[in-house]
Amino acid sequence: MDPQIELEYENVKDRADSKLVRFVGDLDATNVETVLEKICGLFNEGFLNIVADFTKLRYVNSTGLGILLHFSKAAKEKGGSFKISNVNENVYEIIEIIGASSLLQIYDDVDAAVASLK
Amino acid sequence: MIRLEQKTSVMTDSTTPAAISLAFPGDLEYIPAVRKFIAEAVASFGFNPKFVYRCEVIVDELCNNAVTYGCVSVTAAVKLTCRLFRDRAELAISDEGGKKENIVKLEQALKDSDAADRRQAVDKKNLGMEIVRLLAEKVDLHIDETRGVTTVKVIKKCEETR
Question: Which residue of B24, B70, B142, B147 is surrounded by the most CB atoms within 10 Å?
Answer without folding.
Answer: B70
